[in-house]
Amino acid sequence: MAATLAPAPLRADASRLGDVVPVSLNELRTPVSEELSLFRDRFRDAMRSRVSLLNRVTNYVLRRKGKEIRPTLVLLSAEMCGGIRDETYTAAALVELLHTATLVHDDVVDEAETRRGVFTIHKVWMNKVAVLFGDYLLSRGLLLALDHRQYQLLHTMSDAVRRMSEGELLQIETARKQDITEETYFRIIGDKTGSLIAACLAAGAESAGADEATADHVRQLGEKLGLAFQIRDDLFDYDGADVGKPVGLDLQDRKQTLPLILALENAPENEAARIRRIVRKRKKSPAAIREVVRWVHDTGGVAAARARMEELAADAADGFRQFPAGEAREALIGLCAYVVARKK
């Protein structure tokens, strides 16, 4: 039976993340480890082709399997919302096919030579093969949903791809103008990052037979989780030294993210104008980067962005607590804490 949401509001003292133990990505998979093995078989079958070149590229991708976070989210959501069904494996496979396709295309657009320490597909086979392989994965994903008559799944994931594309294009547009508001920032990261995580959780709930209200609820929780995840990524640019990472890479690329945006909003106009002039320069010295990073810290931009991230993650955890207790629910709550605490 599909889960229904608890009607009673949460107690305020149970709503924050202070007592939640973050789960590692390995621990996140534990409640659905057996189901993930079944998913992998479905995923491999979906990628097979009669063309030997496609199969060679597919094997190259499968040997460099990622962390499987997105199919894991589909499985956990389904388990939390009523139980994993055959439809859930189709949803998980479609999610991974679409995600892999977008990564292949992104590498071509970004002219990236490596991903996770190995050569990208377009670097090994050339751009044309990479683009066509990405197109093949997209078509296989669409056919997978159609062959299983999972039309709602097709709508859920197609909408996510639409949003991801719009987010990328909006980011390009705002980067040219060098003028981004807090509202536009959240729209970009919601489309680019939040939409796919939201779709994973919604697809899992739908595959378990959850009603529309429940599927929409977990979709919103996934969106908040995705927003928090991206803000944490953006914060690394300002506190990377604490975790052994370079500081100011986004600033060097003239990217304006939440810590800088919030600092600029709260600063006197003359100070904000001075910082904007530095950020907009195409080439900046290390000293200039350090100055901006220090200014964003001193002005409260980093603290304000971190508070926003923690609020979003805690809100997501609150929402997951409204489902019946179980390992899947607890894993998702732990993921909310992990998003805030992670160091990479």
Would you write up a description of this structure?
With 344 residues, the protein is mainly alpha-helical. The protein has a single domain (24-341), classed as Farnesyl Diphosphate Synthase. The protein is 73% helix and 1% strand. It contains 16 helices and two strands. Strands 1-2 form a two-stranded antiparallel ribbon. Helix 4 packs antiparallel against helix 5 (86-110), helix 5 packs antiparallel against helix 9 (182-207) and helix 10 runs antiparallel to helix 15 (301-320). The two termini are 38 Å apart. The model is unreliable at 4-15 (pLDDT under 50).
Q: How would you summarize the topology of this molecule?
A:
Elements lengths: L24 H5 L3 H15 L4 H12 L5 H12 L5 H25 L3 E2 L2 E2 L1 H5 L1 H21 L3 H27 L4 H26 L4 H28 L9 H4 L5 H9 L2 H12 L5 H14 L1 H20 L6 H15 L3
Antiparallel strand pairs: 1-2
Helix pairs in contact: 2-5, 4-5, 4-9, 4-16, 5-7, 5-9, 8-9, 9-10, 10-15, 12-14, 12-15, 15-16
- CATH homolog superfamily: Farnesyl Diphosphate Synthase
- Total of helices: 16
Please list the strands of the largest sheet in the order they lie side by side.
1-2
Q: What's the Cα radius of gyration? A: 21 Å
Poorly predicted tracts of residues: 4-15
Coarse shape? globular
Reading off the top of the CATH hierarchy, the class is best stated as Mainly Alpha
**H/E topology pattern:** HHHHHEEHHHHHHHHHHH
Strand content: under 5%
Percent in helix: over 70%
The CATH architecture category equals: Orthogonal Bundle
What is the CATH topology descriptor? Farnesyl Diphosphate Synthase
The secondary-structure class comes to mainly alpha
Largest pleated sheet:
2 strands, antiparallel
Mean pLDDT: 86
Euclidean distance between termini CA atoms: 38 Å
Total E-strand runs: 2
User: In total, how many domains does the architecture comprise?
Assistant: 1
